[in-house]
Design brief:
single chain, alpha/beta, 10-stranded mixed sheet, binds 6-O-phosphono-alpha-D-glucopyranose
Amino acid sequence: MRLVVVSNRVTMPERGEKVAAGGLAVALRSALEKHGGLWFGWSGTTSAEPSSRVEPVRLGNVSYAVVDLTEAERQSYYLGFSNRALWPLMHYRLGLTDFDRSDYAGYLGVNRRFAKLLVPQLKPDDVIWIHDYHLIPLAAELRRRGVTNRIGYFHHIPWPSAEVFGALPFSATLISTMTAYDLVGMQTQTDADNLIGGLVALRGAHRDGERVKAGPRETVVRPFPIGIDVESFRKLAVASVRAATQPIRATTGPLGGRKLVIGVDRLDYSKGIVQRLEAFGQFLRSHPEHRGNVGLLQIAPPSRSDVPEYAELDRQSDEVAGRLNAALGEFDWTPIRVVKKAYSRSALAGFYRRAQVGLVTPMRDGMNLVAKEYIAAQNPEDPGVLVLSRFAGAAHQMGEALIVNPYDTHEVAEAIRTALAMPQSERVRRFERLYATIAASDIGWWTSRYLAALTGAEAADKLAPPE
Ligand code: G6P
């Protein structure tokens, strides 16, 4: 049995690519390196002619098969339908959703081409695991070409209720392609219920608990909250805290004197970065005794900058940070630093361990792996405090964080104050429970649980071991 993973983004280690904080790429690379197999998807680049065949490249125990898109396909499939229609819709942002019929046609066309190029790579015993909203119709396209292998899908982002999803033109057609899968994994029970509810409401599907049927096949829809490689991230944090601390000292002053609040997110409106900056400003206004002795470091690598809403967020975050720094800063203290670039995972781990407060306040998020990374990186004897949005999937598992409503600036500001003032004994108590949770449901647990369910046997350990 071989594992075939398909995702829009494929990160190949030999390219030395920096993987942005959290997210699908980080999770998948760990899973595939462990199990071995084939990773198929977009190369991330465009070429004048669409690829007519793919040639897998083997690196370690993983083969990579990547496809170039044309610029028109990147525009319609990736920037257009995936990221201007599905992304905002799935994050409950109907007002930002922009539906364009030609983008939808491009989306379907790329899924069709992926299916055509993947079929010759498949072996009869392969288990196929497709990831995320870019590739929803892929299983239906593979089935159309006669593929009978087990095919699973994992949805990394939220799935909204039928009322919201139904606003998408062709929503009934698109949602029914989900029934080409044997197993659909969601981040939370709410997401699973929303998808099943959508299939019932929009397609008249029949529901029996976690099983749903709208055609010949029965699909199981179940939550599988994704995790991280807790142990290696912890080790990374221990190893890099010293290196990460040096530059922070240089810009914020001596460690003893100033505390650090950290946010790490792709520059995306779903992450609530602007609202978080405002909340930090509110905190400094309400509690002026903290001025001069704490700083917010927001690391925000740019993302999807060709999409207008992202360009607008880029501008807006600079404006808000500039306004707050000018109003609240001192000649020798800058309250907020927004750094718009990607850091290595090891640098991030060091920053997390150095920070007294981890601010993870998305307006809506499938899981949010930064919340888990922040906890994994802490010093168990003197841990920092996680402030976590109730609209992140992670909040379903991480109730010992300070849970906040990111729309309520005042509440987030007060949580920052509470976190900074929290006695060590309480910090340790909360940290221990959070760490135990994320360690018990780490990336290895997630992969083997999902694959055991997909293969129909509790036998994920039968997957070919790395050669
Ligand atoms: C989220 C999505 C992933 C996506 C990642 C980065 O985590 O769930 O599918 O790869 O964001 O976004 P990008 O558009 O750069 O791939």
